[in-house]
């Protein structure tokens, strides 16, 4: 498993190359709600240059159940196993950031990679994507957040039991 500085360096190097290709997503001016923050999600929050970046991981069956309870459309992608939602907020004001462009790279325990843009989900108040995380082991989640011309990168290691 890589250390946090190595993960961040990898995020900066790898994500900088493909981040410009992501279009900005629609902006939504909503207050921050529960989103994916329930007890059933695996979550982790980081502070990067004044921006709170929270990662929430949920298996698709549980995600579908949550969507039904919130009366949101079922948007689970076929062939995926998990939903990863990233929420962004200004650290000082705690105001959610909804007008960013967010890309994610997932590295599986064997070194395989999945790279895709995350789309803003108004109901979850976060940027989400669906990924295949089929095997047990340590995964790396790397994100690049573009806010205008500014880029911020972050990464975490996540253990699938």
Could you give a short description of this structure?
The protein has 161 residues and is α+β, with helices and mostly antiparallel strands. It contains two helices and eight strands, in the order H-E-E-H-E-E-E-E-E-E.
Notes on the protein architecture:
The protein has 161 residues and is an alpha+beta fold. It has one domain (4-160): Domain of unknown function DUF4426 (Immunoglobulin-like, Sandwich), CATH 2.60.40. It has 2 helices and 8 strands. Strands 1-2-3-6-5-4-7-8 form an 8-stranded antiparallel sheet. A hairpin with a 2-residue loop joins β1 and β2 (51-59). The longest helix has 15 residues, at 4-18. It starts with a helix and ends with a strand. Mean pLDDT is 80; it is low at 1-40.
């Amino acid at each position: 498993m890589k250390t946090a500085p190595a993960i961040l360096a990898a995020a900066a190097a790898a994500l900088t190359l493909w981040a410009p290709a992501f279009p900005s997503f629609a902006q939504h001016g909503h207050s921050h709600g529960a989103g994916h923050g329930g007890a059933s999600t695996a979550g982790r929050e980081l502070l990067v240059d004044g921006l709170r970046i929270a990662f929430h991981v949920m298996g698709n069956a549980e995600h579908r159940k949550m969507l039904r309870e919130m009366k949101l459309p079922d948007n689970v992608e076929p062939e995926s196993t998990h939903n990863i939602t990233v929420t962004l907020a200004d650290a000082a004001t705690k105001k959610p950031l909804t007008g960013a462009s967010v890309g994610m790279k997932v590295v599986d325990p064997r070194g395989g990679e999945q790279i895709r843009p995350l789309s803003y989900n108004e109901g979850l108040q976060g940027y989400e994507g669906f990924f295949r995380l089929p095997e047990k082991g340590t995964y790396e989640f790397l994100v690049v957040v573009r806010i205008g011309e500014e880029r911020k990168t972050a990464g975490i290691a996540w253990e699938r039991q």
